[in-house]
Amino acid sequence: MSATREDSAPCAIPSKLWRECLKQYDYGPDRPEGACAAHRTKFYDCVKDWTARTQKRPYSYTLFELPKSCGHEAEKLHQCMMMNMFEVSHCQKEMAVLKRCAARADPEVRTYLQGDEAIADLEKDIEETTGLKRLWYKAIGKL
Predict the structure, then answer these.
(1) pLDDT digits (tens, 9 = 90+) for 84-136
(2) Which of 11, 87, 117, 140 is most buried, judging by how many CB atoms fall within 10 Å of its CB?
(3) InterPro entries in the record, alphabetically (predicted)?
(4) Other CB atoms closer than 10 Å to residue 55's CB: what's the count?
């Protein structure tokens, strides 16, 4: 085969082995020290190796930082996730609010989330907010 195929699950085996090891101890913190450390190390090594092979440029976490203005929304989502044992389906409202905030603050996020119903009427929302500010400033005599 001359065509190269990108592996859709490059570290599936190490992750499965690590999960199986954790499952033996019911994911509890009372497992013997280092019981699954070898499996965890193999998984992380696999991820690092795969990342080094496939990425065109080095990873930078700052590329994916939220705007500072959305910190409150991010905290609300985090609280919801913690209260619901990180079950995403229970935190859809908080997720939508965070998406909306990030899309409002960053044009790149807005482009990426194009078509997502969480930001469906964002442009209209931004225009209305600007219009309300304008009316307010006019009313108080700042315009």
Answers:
(1) 888 888 998 899 889 888 888 888 888 888 888 877 766 665 555 566 666 77
(2) 11
(3) Cys_alpha_HP_mot_SF
(4) 9
Instruction: Name residues whose C-beta falls within 8 Å of residue 36's C-beta, 6 or more positions apart in sequence.
Output: 18, 21, 22, 25
Residue 71 half-sphere exposure, CB side, CA atoms within 13 Å?
2
Residue 85 tokens, joined: 């044992």
Residue given tokens 């929302």 in the structure block: 125
**DSSP percent split of the chain into helix, strand, coil, nearest 5:** 65, 0, 35
Virtual torsion, Cα 99, 100, 106, 107, nearest 10 deg: 100
User: Which residues lie below 8 Å from residue 40, measured CB to CB, with a gap of 6+?
Assistant: 18
Characterise 61 by phi-psi region: left (phi > 0), alpha (psi -120 to 50), beta (else).
alpha
Q: How far apart are CA 23 and CA 30, in angstroms?
A: 12
Cβ atoms within 10 Å, residue 95 = 17
